[in-house]
Amino acid sequence: MSIHAHVDEPIFVPVDDVSLVNDLEGFEVGDQVGSPLYSVVPEHIAVLFLLVLLPVVVWLIVATIRRRATGSHERSIQLVDGYRSLPTARRWAVWAVTVSALIHGLLTFTHEISVYTLLYGVGAVALGMAARWIVLGVLPRLTVLVLVGSVVAFWFLGTPPDQVGVATKLVEMFGLALLVVPGHGVKRTFAPAGVVSLVVVTGIAVWIGAFASAGEDGGHHGGEYPEPGTVVPYIDRLEATLAEQQAADDLFDQVVLGVAKYDDPAVAEGDGYNVGTIVGRDHHADNPAYLDDGRILDSERPETLVYANTESGPVLVGAMFQMPGLDNPGPQVGGPLTVWHSHENICFTLMPPALVGLMSPYGSCPIGALNIPLTNEMIHAWVLPGVEDEWGHIDDEWFEHYIDDLNT
Amino acid sequence: MSQRSDKAVDPGLIDVVWAIILIQGGVMILSAFEGFIGGFFFGSLPAALSVGGLSLSGAFLALLSARGIRHRRRWARRLTFIAEWLVLAGGLLNAFATSLLAAEVAGLVSVLMTIVVPLTVIIMLHNLRSFFAVDQSEDEFGGQLVMDLEQVR
Fold it and tell me: Using an 8 Å Cβ cutoff, are A146 and A130 in contact?
């Protein structure tokens, strides 16, 4: 027997004995949780309001300084005179650094009191001072040091990196680039190359931070931030009920039996799976005829099979079930044991047709690739004997040993 | 273009455009790494080489253009125009696809880097066009040394 249902008849498993163990804050049941890399963490949402109000804030700053300057306030007069004498690039640099200082200042108040509060405060003051130094034309090296220091600090302290963090660093690096325009002031032969390098290394650091802040199993089970490119529904508990455990076990046994016939890729090919040449250990072979056949979680007809290429031949690693359409959440047959996931911001190229990664922290795919913002929901069942996490993430180390044993 | 409107445009904006393209060059170098690594990881070496190679070429052209823009080369302005229009078109397409498929607004950084920034550069370069008119003797890709406006002055 296989479990399958039409889209309008989702499988329903009654839930009791709920234990609240989820530490993710700012989400509710029904929300989709993706990597902060492609979103804004709750503590940073205030910055979006600041950006909307930025013209007003800038006007207020300018009007205040001008009014004080007309009132013979010495420091304000220096600022007004200094700003007027600046070349255009420096003026833009002043505003780039000022915007970053404002964002840091605002974030001081939006986080719970911790060492980060202090660091944001220090950053706001330092960047504010740097903007003033640019206007007054003093301490150019220290100004550059403050900007570089703010960016480098983000490499180590900005986890999990989110859109506000990356945007702020881009503004700072833009300000830095404006300070090293060739021909202004001291000789800066290698400074532009330094800015380009800073952009590249910051991007790499953001990638590392984004993956490092994801859950242990890539966040596939919910309750933690998933790795970049993966989206999971928010769940408010991680422990399954006995009924859910039984339902998940039953379904898994059915899947193992149902796909056993596809141990031989030729059989799968004959049933319409696009097996092709099996490459690597995560080779997905989909069956277009099963993608929209109205059957959900049909253990006899999974939408995709997963094979690994080994020295002793292809091995069926698992099956992947997919929901039709983008707005259809998969049935949580085993509650938190069977959490479906989707993918976001995948880069796809037609030269030749293939996935080539995820959207960059800087918001674009490589040239020649297009961004796929969201996929339909899917869930994997790993059918190898002895696998620990049947519905989640296959452990890489365990998998290596398994393949090694097969080869020997 | 009238003399009056020429005076209204600040030539110092050329340095701002230069700084933006410098950042874009860095972004494209990172994209090239991502293309090579991501493509290889997903098991498609030809795809990795094509998008990685394209991004690396794009980065090289961007940094070359940045240099040309500072020296007020017309080829650099034209090349930047084309590149920014392509980035803008891709950004708008992505924003449209994101709202259509994911029912969400495109990310802050994505909007900034693929819509706001290219639009800013396009507008600036359009307004600065008269400052790129001095080197008509150069060849299309700047192979000849031409005195730039600062040297003429």
Answer: yes
| Confidence label for A277 from pLDDT (cuts 50, 70 and 90) | confident
Q: Collect all residues of chain A within an 8 Å Cβ-Cβ radius of residue B32.
A: 366
Count of helix runs (H) and strand runs (E) in chain A: 12, 9
Cα dist from A375 to A324, A361, A395, whole Å? 10, 19, 24
Q: How far is the C-alpha of A146 from the C-alpha of A123, rounded, in Å? A: 9
- Encoding tokens for residue B150? 């600062």
How is residue A162 written in tokens?
């989110």
The three-state secondary structure class of A160 is: coil
B chain contacts of residue A196, beta-carbon cutoff 8 Å: 22, 25-26, 29, 63
Task: List chain A residues with CB under 8 Å of B87.
Answer: 364
pLDDT at position A210: 92
pLDDT for the residue B43: 61
DSSP alpha helix (H) spans, A191-323: 191-212, 242-259, 265-270, 288-291
**Could you tell me which of A381, A377, A301, A304 has the C-alpha nearest to residue A2?**
A301
Q: Kindly tell me the sign of the dihedral angle through the C-alpha atoms of A345, B31, A92, A104.
A: positive
Cis peptide before A160 (omega within 30 of 0): yes
pLDDT value at A96 more than 50 = yes
In angstroms, rounded to a whole number, what is the distance separating the alpha carbons of residues A149 and A136?
21
Kindly report which listed range (A4-8, A138-142, A375-379, B78-82) carries the lowest average pLDDT score: A4-8
Task: Find where tokens 């963490």 sit.
Answer: A41
Q: Are A175 and A97 in contact (CB under 8 A)?
A: yes
Contact A50, A100 (CB under 8 A): no
Which ipTM value was assigned to this complex?
A: 0.86
Confidence of residue A18 (pLDDT cuts 50, 70, 90): very low
Is B17 part of the contact surface with chain A (CB cutoff 8 Å)?
Answer: no
Sign of CA dihedral A284, A287, A291, A294: negative
Query: Which residues of chain B neighbour A164 with C-beta distances below 8 Å?
Result: 108
For residue B52, the Cα-to-chain-centroid distance in whole angstroms is: 18
Counting Cβ atoms within 10 Å, is residue A38 exposed (0-12), middle (13-18) or buried (19+)? buried
pTM above 0.80, yes or no: yes
Select from A154, A206, A198 the least CA-distant residue to A176. Answer: A198
pLDDT, tens only, A365-404: 999 999 999 999 999 999 999 888 888 888 888 888 888 8
Query: What span, in angstroms and rounded, lies between the C-alpha atoms of A350 and A370?
Result: 9
Chain B window 70-99: which residues touch A at a Cβ cutoff of 8 Å? Answer: 70, 87, 90-91, 93-94, 97-98
- Which amino acid is present at B80? T
Structure tokens at A109: 């108040």
Domain ranges of chain B: 11-133
Distance separating alpha carbons of residues A30 and A38, to the nearest angstrom: 19
Contacts of A181 (CB under 8 A, 6+ apart): A89, B15, B18, B19
Q: Is A103 on the interface with B (CB under 8 A)?
A: no
